[in-house]
What we know:
Its cofactor is Mg(2+). Keywords: Hydrolase, Magnesium, Membrane, Nuclease, Transmembrane, Transmembrane helix. This protein is of the alpha/beta class. It has 3 domains: 2-135, no CATH class; 151-286, Rossmann fold, CATH 3.40.50; 291-364, CATH 2.40.50.140. It has helices spanning 2-23, 25-29, 32-37, 41-80, 84-104, 113-136, 138-141, 150-156, 168-173, 175-182, 193-203, 208-227, 244-255, 264-273, 280-287, 355-364, and strands spanning 164-166, 189-192, 231-234, 258-261, 277-279, 296-304, 311-314, 320-324, 333-344, 347-354. It has a 5-stranded parallel beta sheet with strand order 3-2-1-4-5. Strands 6-7-8-10-9 form a 5-stranded mixed beta barrel. Strand 9 and strand 10 form a beta hairpin. Helix 1 (2-23) packs across helix 4, helix 5 (84-104) runs antiparallel to helix 6 and helix 10 packs parallel to helix 12. The N and C termini lie far apart (107 Å).
Amino acid sequence: MDRILRQVLTAVGALVGLGVVLRNHTAWSAWPMLHAIGHAREGVLIAAGLVAGGLVGYLVGPILVAWATRAVVWVESRLQHTPTQDLLSGSIGLIVGLVIAFLVGTDLSGLGPFGTILRVAITIGFGYVGLRVSIRRKDDIMRPQSWLPARMKHRNGPESIKPKILDTSVIIDGRIADICQSGFLEGPLVIPAFVLEELRHIADSADVLKRNRGRRGLDILNRIQKEQNSVQIYEREVDPNMEVDSKLLKLAKILDGKVVTNDFNLNKVAELQGVPVLNINELANAVKPVVLPGEEMVVHIIKDGKESGQGIGYLDDGTMIVVDGGRKFIGQTVAVLVTSVLQTAAGRMIFAKLKSQAGVEAEAR
Length: 365
């Protein structure tokens, strides 16, 4: 291959040398020595051009090819690690910048060499600016619906039909399947490929607990796909250098969708970035029945509390009830009266006291 390449480069160099000789024939023929040769000067010039061009192609050609090969390999490696969205948006911005530069530099041809230099500078400048601006605004460029006016956005559909992007934690949690089955989530459910990859890694973990959680998440996904017709797998890579949570938020901006999660930290980060979030824990707290102080309920005491004499019980929805004086009734079902309700970020706690104790206090009053 090297020998064939050298032969090809030598032939190309010879042809280039011949072209240079023929193009500058007038200047060469003005030399007195060549003029004295007479009619043989054309042959001398042609032979000299072929020999010089072939020699340059034979010696310099392989070096140039090696440089070009290394440059192509470097550019290819950089392009492989560049996200597809950056490539698309950068190409669009570069094309727009070059078109603007062409329109601006059309009237500069009459300035001579200075006009040519100015046109080259304008082309490079506008091309670079278009490339940089388009990469920085790639989220808006790759989201065409953001170009429309607010009225047209409203005509195209209400906000409730935005795609819902599922987080890994909410899939493992499992309650999302029941919520989807109940019909409270409208619009397409988007499952990113990087979330599936994370679930697969969890399911293949050496830790038994993690492995069971990962397999549970995969089972939940299979159930959702069987019951819902609007499940979509997003195969495109967002940005390989980002973490999963950052990818989710970026994908939500690209698709103009909402992230469905039960991760408290992800919820806060999404609020800071202006990404709408549907938190399953907030939904669970919102649909819990309202309990007011003074209401009576029946609780099964299962363990003692932190304070002296307290007993702990739970409602069917998982709400913890702290019963004052319920420690001695562990393992029994007792009637209690609600004294106060405490709402926290982690959930809701109900404080109560035994109904018999409340009756004794009332009689004492």
